[in-house]
Amino acid sequence: xDRIFRAFIDTLNGNPDIPALHSAMGDVAAAxxxxxxxxxxxxxxxxxxxKLISNYPxxxxxxxxxxxxxxxxxxxxxxxxxxxxxxxxxxCWSHDLGASQLQLLDEAAQFGIRCGVTIPIRDPQCRIAAxxxxxxxxxxxxxxxVERHLSxxxxxxxxxxxxxxxRLAPSRCISGIQLSPREYECLEWAARGKSAxxxxxxxxxxxxxxxxxLDNSRSKLGVKTISQAVAKLxxxxxxxx
Length: 241
Fold this sequence. Notes:
The protein has helices spanning 2-13, 18-31, 58-66, 74-79, 99-109, 141-168, 181-191, 196-203, 207-220, 226-236, and strands at 36-43, 51-54, 86-89, 115-120, 126-135, 173-174, 177-178. It is an alpha+beta fold. A hairpin with a 5-residue loop joins strand 4 (115-120) and strand 5. The longest helix is centred in the middle third of the chain and has 28 residues, at 141-168.
């Protein structure tokens, strides 16, 4: 498991694209004996659409998105209302589900998605963000994995989200100025108090390259210091350090 997790971190540090993110999470899920995963994301942008990175059956995910099932899904509804990871299944709900919600669960069950554990992700830039591991039954390897690795699920969700969000919602506009992905990413880390050396270590780039991207963002935003650029980031977006 340590080897798989290190490979996961290495992939994230390599500025991965969507297929690489999909593969990395699939490898981790398989190592945890949780073969099905789904990361669902919707940004706060006015024209945002729900995005999904998942190894669920394609026929199900296409149907789910086409029907806008995220608006009906009791799993997503609960994920938007609580902070803690939770297990779910047809018999796990503490309140009665509507007929349409029960139909959704029945349809998902036809694809082997009958239960799962979902980790809500809180991010002021998102309407919805959650990572789910699903299975056909609660007992067996699934149940044992949930009991053993729940704290790891939280870490996986946060790390995965931090990279997937930048790929799925690539808008990096601050006060009308568009930054490159690396410029924006470096500026976000600077806003969290990280130096160019720190940022280089986090992103797997040199200190000089991190400083180059920070200087570019400062220049594009028309300010003299990185601190002023960070202030513009805070004022022009929903960024919270």
